[in-house]
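for the writeup, i need someone to sanity check this before i put it in the appendix. the sequnce is what the collaborator sent (i think, or maybe the updated version? ugh). structure was predicted straight from it, no edits. if anything looks off just tell me and ill rerun, i have time this weekend
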Amino acid sequence: MHLADQRVVAALESAATISAGLFTGAALYITLVEQPARFKSSAEASKRHFQHTYPLAARMQANLALVAGGSSLVLALLKKSTRYYIATAAFLSIPVYTIACIFPINNRLLSGKDQDADGHDVWSLLRKWGLLHIPRVVAAAAGFGALVVGRKA
């Protein structure tokens, strides 16, 4: 492999690993710290907090997932390594899962109503949201782990 090719691969590996690590850390923080803290306030305050933090976190995490997944995909195609295919699958599945499973709850929580049309209250929506967020953490940890394991120092 030429030196220029090695530099491209190294840059892709760094981009994939750093963005995967940042995504995983953010998802873990949300699940272990931010989500439980929501239940320490009133329903109104918790919903308002979600409405303020969610859009910021969503933009950041969407970009990180796409960089991690896209970089991993290019590496998988170049290097034909299982670890890059695992990372690609993990990080590109996260946005799909989020859109399919979590967006409906996000939309309810982001609405100005205290209850959605089905009568779910804020607490039940937040509990469900928290449970649905866990697979994102698991997928991210698997993808990040795949990138880190086997990486040359």
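The chain is about 85% helix and 0% strand. The chain has a mean pLDDT of 92.
thx in advance!!
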